[in-house]
Amino acid sequence: MTRPELLGIRLFDLSGRVAVVTGAGRGLGRTMALALAAAGADLAVSSRTSRSWNRWRTRCTRSAAAANPSPPDMTRPADADALAEAAVSRLGRVDILVNNAGINIRKPVLELTPAEYREVLATNLEGYFLAARAFGPHLVGQRSGKVINISSILGSVALANQAAYASAKGGVEQLTKVLALEWAAANVQVNAIAPTYFETDLTRPLYEDPERRRFITERTPAGRWGQPHELAGAVIFLASAASDYVTGHTLVVDGGWTAW
After folding, report:
1. Is 128 a catalytic residue?
2. Which of 44, 77, 120, 179 could form a disulfide with 87 if both were Cys (CB 3.0 to 4.6 A apart)?
3. What are phi and psi of 88, to 5 degrees?
């Protein structure tokens, strides 16, 4: 039987929900955090840079950011645990976790040092694992929740000079599936979003490189780069009741790139 309340806008309403977004200081992380807030969620955000951290502290009066004295480093188990504790303590609960914090080091394999490789994996993959361990007991304990891991098209396709990043994002998609299997019985849905190239501060060096910009534009069937607001629908969908029967899935937002 169709539930009447799911026929209207409430299907995507996040009022009363608490969302944690890591790496929310700028770029797509900031866009997704603002999208969740616009859908009604209260926010707890993390950002590794003090400038971005302080901007969120003044903007979000109910943010768990204000409960921590400094920006967390999500590659440290203690920092991940502290963010989870602060979010639950200040906001009473957590319903949505968006793992977004990430870095990239673009080099050919023969020039990429082991330390650089480990640095990318520590932030882009191990950090997601640590956040899942920190927030998981709360989500599983309350028997409801959404985890959204931000992957990339490079989780399933390859580009030169992206060995570390692609390795991490491939791992993110497998981690997503394992978490989905382990937490399904507790009514916690775990999914991933795999964006292509979006116009942000972080991708500006690529966009301003005529050769690179042309390659990406021509390689994308849509014929253009993504705009940050075009990720809002995906994150709201996976954070809302609209996706209650979706788990272990990677939602690709790529203008058709992976359809080739």
Report:
1. no
2. 44
3. -70, -40
CB atoms within 10 A of CB 232: 17
**CB-CB neighbours of 24 under 10 Å:** 31
Closest CA relative to residue 95, chosen from 253, 247, 238, 259: 238
Residue pair 144/187 in contact by the 8 Å Cβ criterion: yes
Looking at residue 225, what DSSP letter applies?
Answer: P
Catalytic residue among 117, 128, 165, 197: 165
Q: pLDDT tens string for the chain (260 positions)?
A: 456 555 555 899 999 999 999 999 889 999 999 999 999 999 988 877 656 555 655 455 455 444 454 678 999 999 999 999 999 998 999 999 999 999 999 999 999 999 999 999 999 999 999 999 999 999 999 999 999 999 999 999 999 999 999 999 999 999 999 999 999 999 999 999 999 999 998 899 999 999 999 999 999 999 999 999 999 999 999 999 999 999 999 999 999 999 98
Q: Which 3 state secondary structure label does DSSP give 203?
A: coil
Q: Report the alpha-carbon distance of residue 105 to residue 101 in Å, rounded.
A: 14
Query: Does the model's pTM come out above 0.90?
Result: yes
The packing angle between helices 127-142 and 163-183, to 10°, is 20
Kindly provide the b/e burial profile for residues 52-61, where b requires at least 16 CB atoms within 10 angstroms of the residue's own CB: bbebbbeebe
CA distance linking residue 15 with residue 35, whole number of Å: 12
Distance in angstroms (rounded) separating the CA atoms of residues 18 and 64: 10
**DSSP structural state of residue 149:** E
- DSSP β-bridge partners for residue 44: 20
Residue 149 CA to residue 169 CA, distance in Å, equals: 10
